Amino acid sequence: MDLNGLDAEEIVKKLDKLRPNTDYLSKAVLQYNVETHEIFTNKTKYPDKLIETGEGTVSQPINRIGFAIQQMIVDKIVAFGFGKPVTYVPTDTTVWSLVQSVLDQNKSISLNRNAAREVYGATKTAEIWYLTPEADRLRYKLLKPTEGDVFYPVYENGDMVAFVREITVKDENDKEVEYREIYTAEEKIVLKKESQWIEESRDRNIIGKIPVVYGSQKKTEWDIVQPLIERLEELASGHAEINDYHVAPKIKAKGEINGFAKKGEKGAIFEMEKDGELDYMTWNNNTDSYKLEFDNLWNIIFKLTQTPDISFDKLKSMGAISGVAAQYYFMDIHLKVEMKREIWDDYLARRINIIKAFLVNVLSTKDAKKLQELEVDIVYNPYMINDMKEKISYLMDATGGQAIMSVETAMRNLGIDDPVEEMKRIRDENQYSAETENSNTFGV
Asked: For residues 262 and 270, is the Cβ–Cβ distance under 8 A?
């Protein structure tokens, strides 16, 4: 995008016309955070009770119960997709170590999870990569809509031609000041709002491409089940109201009562007229219909979002499951992880290309040609329960019952630092046991 020749006011007007509608995103953030669910905030849809007292009509708060189901759905897909680190398969392992070093310095494993959480929970995220002031390291800033970050890309013919970040900070007088950061392939422009927009800085982009990794999806992970979640919260809140109403025993009287027992009196007696009756009112505790609807909604939410229920109660009811059974149980979310590659293949490749561009132009120019030719395949490793016993049995069947690893290798897999020394100790112990047994046998 060519912004040359435009003053700050013209740049802002041009970009504001391209600013996307944020209504859906704002609503998504409210749904993601349980404390801002409608059950707590919408007093029109879920009004408090009006009760009559001696002083007139007063408002009494109702029970409001919310469930963090949206966060649970997001956390599950993040854990299954990026709980295990992705694997990079480069065409040149030597020069790849330069890129890997940058990824390690910036804790890319956690970065992947945080980025995924924003995309799944708020539909988008972005990383802005930059050089430290000493120009010796690469760092990033992850933009999070769930924490109030405002940003958007500008596209032309399917390519990102600019990236805009809107920032509001407080100055030394506690006055809010607006800024715009605009990134293009040629430059970075910072604008500041005073009485009007002014240009605070304009710097050349040394890598020749926008230093931003942007990822998005159209809807949140829970979008399709949002009405069901709201119904669950309404059911739970309403049921709590019923419990409160019936929790204290109520007495039904027939006839006239002449005298009441005193509060706290043991062996209490009520004086009544002839033929008078006194009974406790009992609540016909018929909760089957409520439980059926609640359970049905809960199960449908898990199924429609392809989210496995791995709660302790659920797994306990399933008993001990084999590795193959676990694979079937987690198949749905593994398919979901596979579909998400449509987002993350481009996202992770873009990150690698930006790191390469900084290395080529600033940090490691002597390896420029090899870095430019470097290509990387990305392998995802969805989380899976590892049934080692079943896997070993399967492999031994495939080899006709032959051993599939040495004792030394097995010990290393167990985490024993020096298996050779450990095997020597075992032989010594076995030899000592055999000599002791022979001595006892022959009465020596």
From this structure: no
Q: For residues 161 and 184, is the Cβ–Cβ distance under 8 A? A: yes
Distance CA 201, CA 189 (A): 6
Token digits for 143? 């933009």
Encoded amino acid at 297, one letter:
L
Strand partners of residue 163? 153, 183
Tokens 């998504």 correspond to 28
pTM as predicted: 0.79
Distance CA 260, CA 262 (A): 6
The secondary element (H helix, E strand) that includes residue 332 is helix 331-339
Calculate ∠ Cα 178-163-374, nearest 5°: 140
Across the chain, which has 444 residues, the per-10-residue mean pLDDT values are 84 92 95 95 91 82 94 95 93 93 95 97 96 89 95 93 94 89 95 93 93 96 97 92 72 68 61 69 68 92 89 62 65 91 96 94 86 94 65 60 74 79 84 70 55
Strand partners, 89: 377
Report yes or no: 145 and 119 within 8 Å, Cβ to Cβ.
Answer: no
Helix/strand/coil (H/E/C) assignment for every residue in the chain: CCCCCCCHHHHHHHHHCCCCCCHHHHHHHHHHCHHHCHHHHCCCCCCCEEEEECCEEEEECCCCCCCCHHHHHHHHHHHHHHCCCCEEEECCHHHHHHHHHHHHHCCHHHHHHHHHHHHHHHCEEEEEEEECCCCCCEEEEEECHHHCCEEEEEEECCEEEEEEEEEEEECCCCCEEEEEEEECCCEEEEEEECCCEEEEEEEECCCCCCCEEEEECCCCCCHHHHHHHHHHHHHHHHHHHHHHHHCCCEEEEECCEEECCCCCCCCCCCEECCCCEEEEECCCCCCHHHHHHHHHHHHHHHHHCCCCCCCHHHHHHHCCCCHHHHHHHCHHHHHHHHHCHHHHHHHHHHHHHHHHHHHHHHHCHHHHHHHHHCCEEEECCCCCCCCHHHHHHHHHHHCCCCCCCCHHHHHHHCCCCCHHHHHHHHHHHHHHHHHHHHHHHCCC
Using DSSP's 3-state secondary structure scheme, residue 444 falls into: coil
Q: Is 178 exposed, middle or buried (0-12, 13-18, 19+ CB in 10 A)?
A: middle
Q: From residue 6, give the alpha-carbon distance in Å to each of 10, 19, 180, 235.
A: 6, 18, 15, 57
Q: What are the φ and ψ backbone dihedral angles of 293, each rounded to 5 degrees?
A: -65, -45
